[in-house]
Task: inverse folding
């Protein structure tokens, strides 16, 4: 059971964090150097449009009024209008987020389902050859820059062997369909294979190492010795008893990983030209499309905050001893 | 024995000797860990390369090399003239790679040191004074955990321009969060210990207690986290440079990889793609293993793992 006071405290922290992030964005995009209006209204818009937007976002008002208006706009989901195509930012970036989920959800599922089994195997053979080399390889997959492994994958599978597409989400010239069309399209998944594998490979080191280290502690517990004495088969002890009792930190970190995946998608999607949230942010930076950059940053930050919250609540629900530990990265 | 040591009292000399012995013991333990020793060699080797780059690099990193036949050597695979081949501007890749080590190490050491300084100070203050100060500082840390690193670096480069300094400043601004938490929780328990109470009773100032009495006990964990941060900083710099928004004033391994990508050379120029990526990976793994090596000295239980 999750205690109500804990839930309330965590909710409070979430609100404070969101408030702080929006305030930081206000400072960065409205107050710091340069003409703040140029950050909100594109010089390319017509004079009429510019005036209307100036009034809508209160740009001719004093700063504290602007700040209140800014907060109110965020609260109702009005994140401004894109400089590149004049559309509202939020629906646009939410649509791109669906593309990001096509990559990150399968990748994180693969990493956090396979990872614990590999980690359990390492822990069982700790300090053996498998464990030593395996741990080193796991650390290496984490340390290898994801854009570099992505480039090598492209070089091998797209340019040399010619068996997988070299980026993007669909062949050039195809019109993007609705979100549902995109998710249920074979072509999409064909394009998604490489980025998913590369992202999963990068993410898998944490669940492996966390399971390994927790399980080494669990393996020293009395109940494992008891199971051994009872003559329970080794694989049953390893997976049913020891691994299951080591999963709590993995579940916690898994939830955090989903939150951090949105920010991490910038590099992944740039390498694979994948039209997701990360690539959209990068494009917007190139085009000096301030409202989209700001909106994408906010959404990525929001995901981190949300999944930090979910991670803590799930952990404390699975194990009531977890309390007041705050977020552990 | 130098002049300073002669002036010390007998007691102080004994303390100094103990510290020396402990440091030597720690050094031996560190080097007896094979992975940590290899990691140290990699980091020192890279440092050597970075310092003596002008003497080691066969060509100027930015020079467009012309072959004996008077032609530009564009995208040539490795040969005896160019051990790592050439790039699309007929520049020598080996020379660029040697110079590129400078950015990685600069970023690693500067961010690492700044994080150690800021994180330790915040952690000490928070854990020592407790109460409202602690509450406020820890909420700031909580908020920092909500800020994703690469997007922040993107925003900073958009608003303030891309340079290696902006990259370092932006990274340090968020990376001290873990250090602050770790130092705080240790300080909380240390400040209840008798030696701190004794120092307080004998009238030591808060600053002295924090930095002279408590901090030295935290040195191992500060180093463990600090060295780990150095590895992460290298990865972040490489990432933002790959996006074309990082270091603009110097050639870095991340910038090299960005050029292979944007010039379209990744279709075949393996000699250009492999070296920078391999060296980033090796250096980051080296920092991680050094961090682990320090952890194993301070927590011998880990060695049996």
Result:
């Amino acid at each position: 059971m999750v205690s109500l006071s804990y839930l309330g405290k965590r909710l409070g922290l979430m609100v404070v964090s969101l408030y702080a992030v929006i305030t930081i964005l206000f400072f960065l995009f409205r107050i710091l150097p340069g003409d703040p209006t140029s950050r909100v209204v594109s010089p390319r818009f017509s004079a009429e449009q510019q005036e209307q937007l100036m009034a809508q976002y209160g740009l001719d008002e004093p700063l504290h009024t602007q700040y209140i208006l800014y907060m109110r706009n965020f609260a109702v989901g009005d994140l401004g209008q894109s400089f590149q195509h004049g559309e509202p930012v939020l629906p646009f970036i939410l649509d791109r987020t669906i593309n990001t989920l096509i990559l990150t959800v399968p990748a994180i599922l693969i990493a956090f389902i396979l990872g614990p089994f590999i980690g359990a195997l390492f822990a069982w053979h700790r300090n053996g050859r498998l464990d030593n080399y395996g741990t080193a390889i796991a650390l290496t997959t984490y340390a290898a820059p994801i854009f570099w492994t992505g480039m090598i994958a492209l070089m091998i599978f797209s340019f040399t062997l010619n068996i997988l597409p070299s980026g993007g989400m669909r062949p050039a010239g195809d019109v993007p369909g609705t979100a549902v069309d995109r998710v249920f399209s074979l072509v999409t998944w064909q394009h998604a294979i490489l980025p998913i594998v590369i992202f999963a490979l990068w993410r898998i080191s944490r669940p492996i190492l966390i399971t390994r280290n927790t399980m080494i502690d669990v393996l020293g517990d009395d109940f494992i010795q008891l199971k051994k004495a009872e003559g329970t088969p080794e694989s049953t002890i390893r997976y049913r008893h020891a691994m299951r009792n080591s999963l709590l930190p993995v579940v916690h970190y898994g939830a955090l990983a989903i939150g951090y995946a949105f920010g991490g998608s910038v590099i992944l999607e740039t390498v694979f030209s994948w039209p997701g949230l990360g690539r959209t942010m990068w494009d917007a930076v190139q085009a000096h499309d301030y409202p989209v950059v700001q909106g994408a940053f906010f959404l990525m930050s929001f995901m981190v905050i949300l999944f930090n919250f979910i991670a803590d609540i799930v952990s404390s629900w699975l194990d009531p001893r977890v309390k007041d530990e705050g977020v552990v990265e | 024995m130098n002049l300073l040591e002669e002036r010390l009292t007998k007691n102080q000399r004994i303390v100094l000797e103990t510290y020396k012995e402990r440091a030597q013991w720690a050094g031996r333990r560190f080097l007896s860990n094979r992975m940590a020793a290899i990691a140290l060699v990699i980091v020192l080797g890279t440092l050597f390369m970075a310092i003596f780059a002008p003497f080691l690099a066969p060509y100027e990193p930015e020079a467009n090399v012309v072959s004996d036949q008077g032609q530009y050597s564009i995208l040539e695979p490795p040969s005896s003239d160019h051990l790592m081949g050439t790039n699309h501007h007929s520049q020598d890749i080996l020379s660029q790679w040697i110079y590129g080590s400078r950015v990685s190490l600069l970023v690693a050491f500067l961010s690492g040191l700044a994080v150690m300084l800021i994180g330790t100070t915040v952690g000490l203050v928070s854990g020592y004074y407790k109460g409202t100060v602690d509450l406020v500082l820890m909420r700031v840390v909580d908020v920092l955990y909500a800020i994703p690193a690469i997007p922040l670096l993107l925003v900073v480069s958009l608003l303030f321009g891309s340079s290696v300094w902006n990259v370092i400043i932006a990274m340090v601004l968020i990376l001290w969060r873990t250090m602050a938490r770790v130092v705080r929780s240790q300080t909380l328990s240390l400040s209840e210990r008798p030696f701190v109470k004794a120092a307080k009773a004998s009238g030591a100032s808060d600053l002295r207690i924090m930095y002279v009495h408590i901090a030295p006990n935290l040195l191992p964990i500060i180093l463990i986290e600090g060295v780990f941060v150095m590895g992460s900083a290298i990865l972040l710099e490489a990432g933002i440079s790959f996006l074309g928004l990082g270091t603009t004033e110097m050639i870095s391994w991340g910038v090299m990889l960005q050029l292979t990508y944007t010039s379209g050379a990744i279709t075949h120029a393996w000699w250009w793609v492999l070296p920078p990526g391999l060296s980033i990976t090796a250096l980051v793994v080296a920092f991680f293993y050094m961090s682990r090596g320090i952890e194993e000295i301070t927590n011998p239980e880990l060695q049996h793992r």
